[in-house]
Amino acid sequence: YRCRLESPTSIGRSGVSQIYHLHVVEGEGFNILHELFPHLKDKLLNEYNISSYSLKNEAEFVTNGNLLNQNLTEDIEWIGIGRFTLEIFLRKELLIQLIVDQSANIVQGVKYRLKQNTGSPLLDIYGNFIVDCTGRNTPSTKWLKESFNLTIPTVQIHFGSGYVTFIGERFKTGDPSLDSKPIICSNGNIPVNNIGCYITPIRTIKTNGENSLETLSTITVTCVNSEYPPNDSYENLLEWTKEHLDSELNSILKLTKVWSPLIPYRRAINDRKYVELLGKSWPQNYILLGDVVYAFNPQYGQGITYAARHAKELSKIFNENCHKLEDFSYIFNQRASAISKECWLISTANDWKTPTLKLIKTDKNGKIQTYERGNGSGTTKHPKVRMPLMIKFLQWYNYWFFRCASKSGQLSTDFFACCQSILQSIYIDETNHVLTSLLYGTKSLLLFI
Ligand SMILES: Cc1cc2nc3c(=O)[nH]c(=O)nc-3n(C[C@H](O)[C@H](O)[C@H](O)COP(=O)(O)OP(=O)(O)OC[C@H]3O[C@@H](n4cnc5c(N)ncnc54)[C@H](O)[C@@H]3O)c2cc1C
Predict the structure, then answer these.
(1) Which residues line ligand 1 (CB under 6 A)?
(2) How far is the CA of 285 from the centre of ligand 1 (A)?
(3) Is 341:427 a contact under the CB 8 Å cutoff?
(4) C-alpha to C-alpha distance for 86 and 438, rounded to whole angstroms
């Protein structure tokens, strides 16, 4: 970890500095991966020396100040894996062959292995259908403007998100209730507490060190409201966490041996492109998928699942076999926007509480309007942010949902077991009205509005 963490491009992917940071894949995202690659989990566990953990007995999971995993009625599996192992696994197992229809003598596609190929002349590659999935720094916005004079309406919410992530070896604190928990997640509670901390194991190790828990973990300290944790030295980070995190987390961090650089990330915003609003003026045979179209607050761990749901929806459109290729992008934009709306509400509701919130809207004529909450001193040069009624309602709802879930084993189990139901169960029509119900955790709590 020491030598390979030097540069984000050290294993060939540029523009994705988030790969150093802790990622959690939601249940639904994992299910989609499992459908596509049924052997994924078994191979990881059996051939790559990966461990699985019990969310019930080996974790402490706190959301908005509520401990959620204390009364689970059934256990939920948590698989911890390091990013290098995952990258090696993906390249070795997945990206290596042609996809062919042998009987028709047709090459349908390529399962490819990424190769460094810098310095070669530009190559025109034609395709019947182009998917831009190049992540949050996509040039598509610029290209659409240049080639079609199209401006995609966008909303960006800046809430001062920051991460510092490192790999650490945990040592015994002397408190068995902490030492028996390899997984610790605490997401802060905006605006009372704007700091969170996540610890998840990625590999077991053998050491001669006394008191080592013999586990390497990815450890992340997060913030909103621009209250950034320092990353110049571990001593300074510890000084800082003393003020901002509870004593249990501090006693763990104090006894952690750092195995990697402290990697910062400060560019995360909620960024949504309303591609669906461009209707039929959107060009044919071309779509945006994943972070390109919508990047989220990473703390809610939705991005990977969102991209997987987009991909699944696209595959559904292809498999329906009743649409003309030239209609695909229009159909996809409409359907994908329903997924975006769900994720947007879940992801942004709490961010709206950030004291120094900033909102930037661009309409389809390219007019940009900035709104700002201000930093407490009262004056800003921009109009004040006005919180939508739906967001106010969701904040109220989240507050009571998590309080109830911390008391109810059934509700918290449903929450963890079907995180996806949170996303899937807000049904919204084209005009943004909630049509049917808002439902967190399928069985336990149903609220009609
Ligand atoms: C700090 C942080 C923490 C996060 N934590 C979580 C989490 O816990 N759970 C979660 O679900 N999500 C999390 N996310 C979000 C998650 O990282 C993204 O949603 C996800 O990576 C999006 O996948 P993507 O394929 O759309 O884009 P990316 O993962 O960004 O992939 C884009 C790919 O395109 C390649 N590329 C770019 N330009 C070109 C080009 N011109 N030619 C060829 N290739 C190109 C890049 O190298 C990259 O491999 C986090 C994000 C951040 C910033």
Answers:
(1) 13-16, 18, 21, 23-25, 133-135, 163, 265, 268, 290-291, 298, 301-305, 307
(2) 23
(3) no
(4) 36
- How large is the C-alpha radius of gyration of the chain? 23
Pick 447 or 213 by higher pLDDT.
213
For atom 53 of ligand 1, the residue with the nearest CA is 18
β-partners of residue 264 are 164
**CA 425 to CA 343: how far, in whole Å?**
11
16 in helix, strand or coil? coil
**Which of 291, 296, 297 has most ligand 1 atoms within 8 Å of CB, for mutation?**
291
The 10s digit of each residue's pLDDT in 137-154 is 888 888 888 888 899 999
Which amino acid does the sequence have at 36? Answer: L
* CA–CA gap between residue 135 and residue 113 (Å, rounded): 19
Q: What is the pLDDT of residue 427?
A: 31
pLDDT exceeds 80 at position 87: no
Cβ partners under 8 Å of residue 267, min gap 6: none
Q: Mark out the alpha helices in 5-64 (DSSP H runs).
A: 27-36, 40-47
For the segment 43-64, the average pLDDT, to the nearest whole number, is 90
CB 447 within 8 A of CB 438: yes
Closest by Cα among 34, 288, 270 to 152:
288
Tell me, in angstroms, the distance from the centre of ligand 1 to residue 338's CA.
Answer: 21
Neighbours of 318 (CB within 10 A): 12
pLDDT band for position 84 (cuts 50, 70, 90)? confident
SS3 257: strand
Q: What integer pLDDT is reported at residue 39 of this predicted model?
A: 83
Q: How far apart are CA 243 and CA 249, in angstroms?
A: 11
